[in-house]
């Protein structure tokens, strides 16, 4: 493959309906295994950026490519399928499905990625995250930290090229924040995924090899 970039952004700009630009980013490129923290105060456009990287939001202008595919060239259905296959997302609200047990939540991510349902791989990831005893448990009986680890497992179970995490530590105490971020970084590394964490959590400063500091647009 000639294109090594997992994520490439060029001349990105977004404004919501009222017109003022909330996000401007000239250029960003991440290769497999790169790890980036996007930092900045509330309202500076971090979630907007994450949503454009995930293809959940179509930017006003500019180009976002994941694994060489320009997201704006895909219609909504194709974008959803592409996201399911190539991108893993750890949302701030975890969005685990309460009607499914833990391993079924992971298997669903494989199904959405259109990969083979591989329960052995699901169990391996759960074991790596210290969750093997909870495979058949409902997400509703998990502690916040356990549920967060399940969300990490679910985001990784289809071996995404790009892993995105939205404020993964904001509701955690210092110990759990450090543990969670270490876990996300280690597992992204093990999968050779490119990792982007967006956060206003100043405790994460200096924890990533690359940092992007967003400032609120004027
Ligand atoms: N759907 C929307 N419609 C209009 N304006 C929006 C919308 N979503 C976000 N904004 C505005 O865009 C700006 C950037 O919002 P965004 O959520 O990306 O910031 P953020 O850095 O993630 O903030 P926080 O750290 O508080 O989550 C803010 O001024 C916000 O009010």
From TrEMBL:
List the InterPro entries: AAA+_ATPase, ABC_transporter-like_ATP-bd, ABC_transporter-like_CS, ABC_transpr_LolD-like, P-loop_NTPase
* Domain annotation ABC transporter: ranges: 7-214
Q: Which domain of life is it from?
A: Bacteria
Q: Which GO terms describe its cellular component?
A: plasma membrane
Q: Which UniProt keywords apply?
A: ATP-binding, Lipoprotein, Nucleotide-binding
**SUPFAM superfamilies associated with the record:** P-loop containing nucleoside triphosphate hydrolases
In Swiss-Prot or TrEMBL terms, this protein is called: Lipoprotein-releasing system ATP-binding protein LolD
State the organism of origin: Oceanococcus atlanticus
